[in-house]
């Protein structure tokens, strides 16, 4: 860790500078996107929150929050402060539970990140399984793109991430869970009975694509560029749920791994078409390569691995049937 960053962390932990509640206030404001939302979530009066943040920015000598009509967003300095504050709070929350958990049943907070596509399909079932099998584990789920997940893992704001890769992420520990081709998913048309689609035809279809940077987008762009083509992108979205709503409305098509479509809720009105030649991505469980996982996080990772294997087995049986 750079010396300047270490000095800042030491300063943040100094009782003469600020208290843990200030860090929690800042995290709450950023997560809620507004002082009003954070005040309700933290059970703190809004004027008090505003005063605390103004004092914090004055003490640091930098602007941490960017205020606009659209809400509150962290500045570049605020992004750094958010990662460090989340890491500090996470370590404090874990401290007593880690000691108890290591001696017996997995216990404590586990912060799990998922790509938005996996979150739509698997988050509810997996959180229910975790509640039943690991009752003393408190699972905190964060959905987002690969850039955000990578940053949160590196800063120790997350313990684990379940996401797609088209190329290995350097500097992080990774456990590949499955390797699958991407497929085209769109509305069902009676006259369209094809089961495969070429890259040339795919490039002309209306596509709802994730905003860059994104693993699926990168893999698709690269495959089309290799044959001199570009996708017909009619809309870019930040989340898989947003893309799915446009597809269900008949506006366009989406590109996903086959397993995601198999577990997609309410996909009866959609069709799945294989892309030829195939475009592969790998689903991985990602964690920090610098520190070992806490016992509870290891248990969640093992349970997620089992959950994914069961989903793959179910999908395989559907195919055989």
Radius of gyration: 22 Å
* Class by alpha and beta content: alpha/beta
The residue-averaged pLDDT reads 82
Report the helical percentage: 40-55%
What ranges have pLDDT less than 50 throughout 5 or more consecutive residues?
A: 1-16
Termini separation = 54 Å
Oligomeric state of the chains present here: single chain
Total helices: the number is: 12
How many strands appear in the DSSP assignment?
A: 12
Largest sheet: 8 strands, mixed
Strand content: 15-25%
Pattern of helices and strands: HHHHEEHEHEHEEEHEHEHEHEEH
Broad shape = globular
Question: Short summary of the structure?
Answer:
The protein has 321 residues and is of the alpha/beta class.
Structure description:
The structure is a single chain. The chain contains twelve helices and twelve strands. With 321 residues, the protein is an alpha/beta fold. Strands 3, 4, 5, 6, 7, 10, 11 and 12 form an eight-stranded mixed sheet that branches. The longest helix has 27 residues.
């Amino acid at each position: 860790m750079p010396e300047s960053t270490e000095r800042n962390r030491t300063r943040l932990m100094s009782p003469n500078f600020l208290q843990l509640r200030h860090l929690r206030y800042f995290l709450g404001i950023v997560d809620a996107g507004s002082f009003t939302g954070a005040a309700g979530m933290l059970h703190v009066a809004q004027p008090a929150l505003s005063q605390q943040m103004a004092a914090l920015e004055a003490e640091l000598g930098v602007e941490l929050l960017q205020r606009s009509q659209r809400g509150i967003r962290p500045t570049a300095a605020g992004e750094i402060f958010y990662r460090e504050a989340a890491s500090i709070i996470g370590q404090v929350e874990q401290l007593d539970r880690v000691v108890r958990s290591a001696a017996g049943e997995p216990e404590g907070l586990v912060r799990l990140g998922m790509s938005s596509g996996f979150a739509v399909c698997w988050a509810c079932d997996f959180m229910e399984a975790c509640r039943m099998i690991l009752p003393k584990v408190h699972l905190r789920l964060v959905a987002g793109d690969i850039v955000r997940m990578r940053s949160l893992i590196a800063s120790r704001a997350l313990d684990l991430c379940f996401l797609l890769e088209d190329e290995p992420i350097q500097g992080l520990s990774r456990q590949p869970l499955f390797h699958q081709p991407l497929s085209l998913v769109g509305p069902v048309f009676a006259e369209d009975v094809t089961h495969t689609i070429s890259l040339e035809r795919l490039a002309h279809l209306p596509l709802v694509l994730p905003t860059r940077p994104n693993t699926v987008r990168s893999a698709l762009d690269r495959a089309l560029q290799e044959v001199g083509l570009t996708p017909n992108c009619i809309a870019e979205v930040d989340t898989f749920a947003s893309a799915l709503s446009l597809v269900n409305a008949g506006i366009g098509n989406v590109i996903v791994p086959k397993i995601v479509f198999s577990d997609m809720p309410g996909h009866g009105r959609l069709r799945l078409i294989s892309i030829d030649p195939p475009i592969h991505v790998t689903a991985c469980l990602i964690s920090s390569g610098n520190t070992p996982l806490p016992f509870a996080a290891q248990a969640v990772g093992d349970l997620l691995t089992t959950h994914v294997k069961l989903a793959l087995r179910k999908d395989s049986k559907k195919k055989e049937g």
